[in-house]
Each structure stands twice: as C-alpha cells, then as structure tokens.
C-alpha cells in the first residue's frame, strides 16, 4: 500500500480545525450563508466531528474539523485524524487551527489513519487525503508511516500466510529495498551453528525454524535489533485454551516492529551500522515437541529448565541475544510480544520497556511524547533474580507464583547479553484492540517511533 501526501494543488479543500471554544468565533467571521449553515448543522467542534461547507452552487468549498477541548485532546492523540471518516472523499489542506508544534503529529496521524489491510479484500478508494502542511518534514513522516504500514501488514497477515518462511521473505524484500545483506540459518543447521533453543522451540512445526540475520551500513556506531518472530504460538504441549490462541498470529509482533524500525533507519540514511536478528519459529505440537521439565542448553551455555512450553519467546530470543552480544555492539534492543503481565500492568496502549541506563530512559521518554508513541519504563529489579533460578538448572523459563511476570521475563533475557552491554527490552502488545484515531483495529507498531527519534542521542549520531 503506497503511502503519500496529496499533491499540493488548487483542488485541495481548505480544512479549518476548530476547538470547542472557537466555532462561534470562526462562524461569526463568515458570510451569513456559512454562519447559518454552521449553526443549523449543530457543529460544536468535538473531536471526531466534521462539517462540509458548501459554496453558492452547493459544491463543498471548505471543511471544518473538531479539535475538541484541550482536556479531551490530552486523553488521546491524532485528533484531526479522528474526523477522517466524517469527511467527504477528496484532498484537504490544513488552513488553520493546528499549532505549529502539532502539525507533524497530526499529519502523521492522517497518514496512519489512511491504512487498511487489503490482502484479502478490495482496497478502499475513497479515503480523504491530506496535503503536507508547510514547514513539516514530509519525507520523514512518509517514512514513519511506511514503517508502520509494513509492521501492520506483517502482523495482520494470518499465520497460514505468515510463517517463518514468509517472514524471511519479508525480511529479504526489505533488505533488497535498502541494499542490506541477509543470511538465514534454517532447520537442523541451527543445531550445527549452535542455536539450540531456537531449534528446540521450532522443531515440532512442519515449517522449519530459522534465524534471520540482516546487516546494513558501514560506518558509525553499531545497533542490533532483536525481534521475537513466533509466527504462531499454540503454547506447545502446555496448550493454550482457544480464547488465548485466537490472536497468536500477532506473536511475531516483535519481529514486525524491528523490521519497521529498520525501515525507518535505512530509509532515513542514519549513519550507523545496523543488524537485525529475528528468530522465526512456530510453537507447535507434535511427537518431537520440547516438553515441560526438559532442560535446554543455550548458545551461551546457560541451562534452562522448561516449566511451561508456552514461555517460548524468551527461549528463542536468548540465543539471538547471545549472538548479538558476541559482536559487542554499542546498543542492543529486543522487542517482543512477551508477557500477559505487561498488559495487565500498563494495558494495550503503552509499550513498557526496561533499561538500566537512566540517561537513555530520559531521552526515550522525551521522544515518546514528541512522536505520539507512548512508552513506560519498568525496572530490571535485581531483587527478583532469584525467582528465575530454579536450582536444578541455571534458569527457569516460567517461574511459579505469578508475580512480576514482565520483570522476571526481562531479567531472564538480560542474562544472555554481556554485563557491559547497553541493553533495552520492549515488551509490546503489537495490537490495537479497537479502532482509534490514526490506529485502526489490528496490528500495531509500538515504541519503534520513539526509539527511532531517540537514536541520535542514544548513539551520539
């Protein structure tokens, strides 16, 4: 799906964005006909409302969009995009009402709101378009939207058409687009190349597990992104109930998010050396499934007792994180749809992240607000380390008790990077459960825009 702003031409209708207190003032400055029309329509400037303004011949000459009250705007984001479905098809140009510091956010929200998942049905052709507002970095905003569309498409595709092989194909297409290099280790070769836990999790599926390794850039600091690519998660022998399995096509949301972030980085030409690692597997059930009480030996040499085969994401990430650490990059970031505990803690709209770097956290939080991409820091709480130590092996993949599940999962992952490595982990949801401005229901990019905006500070670019 092509992402673009509308051409800047005379056909674009002026769009006046009015908050609840400005409607009467604006109408009072218009002709009697327009003033009467606005009053008769009952337009109050609420978020999500719109009104077409007709000319003398009845054809629209302008449009109004509600910006709501400030208190309402604080509850969400992309307020202008909320009115897209209430506008007639055509091109629009923001004429007034949006503060300069909000123009980029609202323009991005409009592009994001134009998304639809069209793989299995006809595309919508009547979505209103927007001329890029003056003074914004339109090219950058298009790149951000392209990244989100890529991520959404990957997550929204059902696992019948998005298994490990198809996820590899998507990574190869992205690598080709940006002239990156890519290698893939598949099937039993994972054992030979010392990725035992990736192989153990994925070996039961008909579609072979693999580790995707993409590199781009030849100068600058080294950034490695690691994304969980569990293309479908049955829970393994600890089989999920049907209600919990229904959304498991999105369990490769971490992989989709790092590929979206990689597109932002490469399309923007950031001066860094990027590596993307995606362990792509299906957690299936068969005679050779890994079992509860198995003890697996990881690439790092740490042993892991399996107390729940449904805690498989941290296993495949562990081998990939060990590989990432071996190259001693300047920053390692993992993204994964890892724990239900994270959703209980912060809900679906916030992307919780973990880091021991206070300066990095401050930078990321500022970028999150700037990029309308909310995140929330959770702690690598050292006092919980003993919870993930079962006694019979070095680590437990599913500690009993149910407390602090997101934190103990993050602590588990941290064991597979070096003590001197700068490491950040995002435990994302990767899904928009109900439609919101700029965010249709379905796959979602979370935390990646904030991280992209913060990278120049994090890596001294």
UniProtKB/TrEMBL annotation:
Q: Key word Manganese present in the record? A: yes
Kindly list the GO molecular function terms attached to this UniProt entry.
manganese ion binding; metalloaminopeptidase activity
According to its UniProt record, which protein family does this protein belong to? Belongs to the peptidase M17 family.
**For this UniProt entry, which segments traverse the membrane?**
none
Segments forming domain Cytosol aminopeptidase: 308-315
Q: Does the keyword Transport apply?
A: no
Note the CDD domains from the entry: Peptidase_M17 (cd00433)
Q: Write the record's keywords in alphabetical order, separated by commas.
A: Aminopeptidase, Hydrolase, Manganese, Protease
Q: Which organism is it from?
A: Marivita hallyeonensis
Protein name from the UniProt record: Leucyl aminopeptidase
What are the annotated GO cellular component locations?
cytoplasm
Q: Pfam families recorded for this chain?
A: Peptidase_M17, Peptidase_M17_N_1
Q: Which GO terms describe its biological process?
A: proteolysis
């Amino acid at each position: 799906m092509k992402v673009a702003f509308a051409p800047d031409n005379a056909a674009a209708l002026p769009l006046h964005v009015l908050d609840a207190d400005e409607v009467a003032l604006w109408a009072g400055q218009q002709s009697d006909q327009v003033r009467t029309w606005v009053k008769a329509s009952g337009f109050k400037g609420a978020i999500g409302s719109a009104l077409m303004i007709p000319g003398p011949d009845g054809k629209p000459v302008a449009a109004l969009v509600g910006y709501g009250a400030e208190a309402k705007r604080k509850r969400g984001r992309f307020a202008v995009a909320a009115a897209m479905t209430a506008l007639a098809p055509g091109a629009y140009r923001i004429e007034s009402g949006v503060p300069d510091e909000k123009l980029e956010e609202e323009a991005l929200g409009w592009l994001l709101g134009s998304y639809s998942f069209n793989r299995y049905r006809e595309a919508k052709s009547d979505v209103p378009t927007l001329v890029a507002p003056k003074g914004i970095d339109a090219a950058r905003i298009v790149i951000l939207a392209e990244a989100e569309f890529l991520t959404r498409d990957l997550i929204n595709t059902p696992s019948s058409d998005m298994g490990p092989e198809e996820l590899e194909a998507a990574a190869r297409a992205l690598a080709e687009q940006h002239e990156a290099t890519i290698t893939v280790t598949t099937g039993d070769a994972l054992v030979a190349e010392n990725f035992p836990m990736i192989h153990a999790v994925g070996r039961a599926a008909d579609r072979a597990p693999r580790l995707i390794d993409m590199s781009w850039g030849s100068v600058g600091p080294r950034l490695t992104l690691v994304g969980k690519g569990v293309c479908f998660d049955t829970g393994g022998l600890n089989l999920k109930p049907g209600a919990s399995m229904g959304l498991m096509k999105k369990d490769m949301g971490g992989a989709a998010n790092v590929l979206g972030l990689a597109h932002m980085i490469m399309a923007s030409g950031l001066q860094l050396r990027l590596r993307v690692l995606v362990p792509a597997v299906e957690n299936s059930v068969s005679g050779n499934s890994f079992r509860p009480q198995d003890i697996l030996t990881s690439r790092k040499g740490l042993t892991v007792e399996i107390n729940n085969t449904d805690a498989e994401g941290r296993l495949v990430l562990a081998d990939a994180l060990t590989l990432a650490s071996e190259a001693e990059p300047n920053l390692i970031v993992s993204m994964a749809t890892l724990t239900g505990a994270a959703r209980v803690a912060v809900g679906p709209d916030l992307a919780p992240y973990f880091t021991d770097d206070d300066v990095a956290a401050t930078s990321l939080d500022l970028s999150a607000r700037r990029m309308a991409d909310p995140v929330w820091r959770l702690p690598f709480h050292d006092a919980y380390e003993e919870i993930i130590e079962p006694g019979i092996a070095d680590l437990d993949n599913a500690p009993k008790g149910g407390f602090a599940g997101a934190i103990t999962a993050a602590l588990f992952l941290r064991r597979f990077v070096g003590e001197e490595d700068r490491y950040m982990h995002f435990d994302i949801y990767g899904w928009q459960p109900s439609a919101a401005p700029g965010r249709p229901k379905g796959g979602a990019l979370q935390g990646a825009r904030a991280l992209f905006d913060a990278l120049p500070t994090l890596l001294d670019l």
